[in-house]
Specification:
This protein folds into two domains: 5-205 and 284-312, Aldolase class I (TIM Barrel, Alpha-Beta Barrel), CATH 3.20.20.70; 211-283, no CATH class. Helix 8 (177-185) links the parallel strand 8 and strand 9. It has an eight-stranded parallel sheet. A three-stranded antiparallel sheet has the order 7-11-10, with helices on one face. The chain has helices spanning 5-10, 27-35, 49-62, 78-87, 104-109, 121-130, 153-163, 177-185, 195-198, 207-214, 237-247, 252-259, 263-269, 293-312; strands spanning 16-18, 40-43, 67-72, 92-96, 113-118, 134-138, 144-145, 168-171, 190-193, 221-224, 231-234. 42% of the residues lie in helices and 15% in strands. The longest helix is centred in the last third of the chain and has 20 residues, at 293-312. Flavin mononucleotide is lined by residues 19-22, 24, 43, 45, 70, 72, 96, 117, 138, 141-144, 171-174, 192-195, 198, 268, 279-281, 283.
Length: 316
């Protein structure tokens, strides 16, 4: 028998990490997942620094279990955000969208466990050099901002596994225990689940966004905005406006000015399904109900054990 590296590292029961997600993952979702035995992450990406402090304080009140904060490194007030995380003695930080070298050593000097999100094995090597404690490898299927390489989770995980022995968390397209078993077979030791948790009761996304996402069919999302920051979007009116500009060969500046500010807030949080930016993963088309986060964690673990048993029964 071998102990799981991710549950050991974070001091949690199940190796299921609820992804940090703009406009979805506040203290309510993070604490619900942590209380269910997974690891909840507060998504700092959509929060003003003092809002983040408030969410951290509320999360501490709502759970005695480990939880963390996800910080996209291109965040404009990054110094302030990091100071808050250190002041509040947050034990776990997941960084993304940037170079892990910039903050890992400083966070680790404060005793913080650091994981970093990558979309390819060359970035995983940078994580090793930076001294992170765990790598999250996120494939092309994933919701939100995405890598330019378009490597799918199935192709990505074994390649990242090949270049590093660090604890490895797979992300992108994982919403079930069967998906979890599949990436474990490829060498992952944990899963980071975004889309499935964005569409739970405790997610702070608007109900309109959740209902729209659970109605999606295969092919209803696409990786868009590649000239500025590749993002997986629902093909709504806003996406079609982007597409029209891109077809005309628009510059990055033109795309930036169409995007403007607050598009994802408008789409995800305020529920403007027409003009808003609706970020969600390919696996949304597999989801048809909005349930409590605890049900997702428990359901995934049950499915995982059943999937492994089923595979064990196959004879050749
Ligand atoms: C609505 C939404 C918002 C997201 N926001 C962030 C974010 O702020 N920071 C980040 O590192 N990743 C973000 N992501 C990506 C997730 O952290 C996660 O890696 C991804 O959702 C996993 O793939 P899945 O959606 O197929 O489960 C977001 C994803 C979604 C769906």
């Amino acid at each position: 028998m071998e102990k799981n590296k991710i549950t050991q590292l974070f001091g949690i029961r199940y190796p299921i990490i609820q992804a940090g997600m703009v406009w979805c993952s506040g203290w309510r979702l993070a604490s619900a997942v942590s209380n269910s035995g997974g690891l909840g992450l507060i998504g700092a990406g959509s929060m003003h620094p003092e809002t983040l402090r408030d969410h951290i304080k509320k999360c501490k009140m709502a759970t005695g279990k480990p939880f963390g904060v996800n910080i996209p490194l291109m965040y404009p007030q990054i110094e302030e955000i990091m100071q808050i995380v250190m002041d509040e003695k947050v034990a776990i930080v997941f960084t993304s969208a940037g170079n892990p070298k910039t903050w890992t050593a400083k966070l680790k000097a404060e005793g913080i466990i650091v994981a970093h999100v990558v979309s390819g094995s060359k970035f995983a090597l940078k994580c090793v050099e930076a001294g992170v404690d765990a790598v999250v490898a996120e494939g092309f299927e994933a919701g939100g901002h995405n890598g330019r390489e378009e490597t799918t989770t199935l192709a990505l995980i074994p390649q990242v596994r090949k270049v590093t022995g660090l604890p490895l968390i797979a992300a992108g397209g994982i919403a079930t225990g069967e998906g979890m078993a599949a990436v474990f077979a490829l060498g992952a030791e944990g899963v980071q689940v975004g889309t499935r948790f964005a569409l739970t009761e405790e997610s702070s996304a608007s109900d309109a966004f959740k209902q729209k996402c659970i109605s999606l069919k295969e092919g209803d999302t696409i990786l868009s905005l590649k000239k500025i920051s590749p993002t997986r979007l629902v093909k709504n009116d806003f996406y079609h406006q982007v597409q029209e500009l891109e077809d005309r060969g628009a510059s990055a500046d033109e795309l930036r000015s169409l995007l403007g500010r607050g598009r994802s807030r408008r789409g995800i949080f305020e529920g403007d399904l027409v003009e808003g930016e609706l970020e969600i993963g390919q696996v949304a088309s597999l989801i048809d109900t909005v349930v409590p986060a605890e049900q997702v964690v428990e359901g995934m673990m049950k499915e995982y054990y059943e999937a492994v048993e089923k595979l064990n029964r196959i004879v050749f």
